[in-house]
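Troubleshooting entry. The earlier prediction with zinc ion gave an output that would not parse, so I re-checked the input for stray whitespace and re-submitted. Clean input:
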Amino acid sequence: MSGIKRLLICLFMIFEVLCEGSGMTEKHKVVLVCMAPLSSNLMSFVAGEVSTNLETSSRIEWQLAETDDPYTNLKHLKRLAVDGAVVVGLMAVPGELSFRRVVDSDARVAVLNVYPLMREDEKMSGPDYAWRIVKETTLLAAQLSGFSPCPFPLCVLHEVKTLSALDEKSRNLCPPCRMRLGLESEMSLPSDMGK
Ligand SMILES: [Zn+2]
C-alpha cells in the first residue's frame, strides 16, 4: 500500500471518529417497550415519529407489565439498554396520584405513564393522545441520550407541566436543537397522522 493511500485511509478514519460524537446516530437507537394496552398502529406511529424527530432507528418490544410499580419495571427494562440504546417503557397506570414518568439517566432507561396524557373526557385514542405520547417519548429518548431540555417553549424538547402546554408545543425539534443533535438545521413541517 502506498504511503499516500495509507495516509488517506488514516485521515478518513479520524474524520469518522470526529463525526461520531456530534450527532444522534445509530449509537442512540431507541427501544420502545409497550407495557400498556396500546394498539400496534399507535405504537408504530409513535416509533416512526420518534425516529424521524431524532433521526435514529427505533424498535418496539411488547412486554406485559406485571406490576404498576414504575421502579420495578424500570429495573426489568435495563437489560434492553445495550449497545448504546436508550429504552422508554410505556405503562398505563390510572389514578390521580400515579406517576407520569420515572427516569434513570445512568441506566438510560425511563418509563412513561401514558394514562395522565388523557383527559377525562377523552377516549384512549385519537390524534391528540397519540401526539402527546410522541412528544413525551421524544423528550425522554433525547434526555436519556444526554441532551438537556430546550428553553424554547415551542420546541418538542421543552419541558412542560400541563396537557395544554404539551398540546401547544411543536411536534418537532427547534433549529438549534436540530443542530445540537448534529442534524440539518432546516425545520421540517409537522407531519400528520394520516400519512
Ligand atoms: Zn429546542
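This one parsed fine. Residues 3-180 form a domain with the Collagenase (Catalytic Domain) fold (CATH 3.40.390.10).
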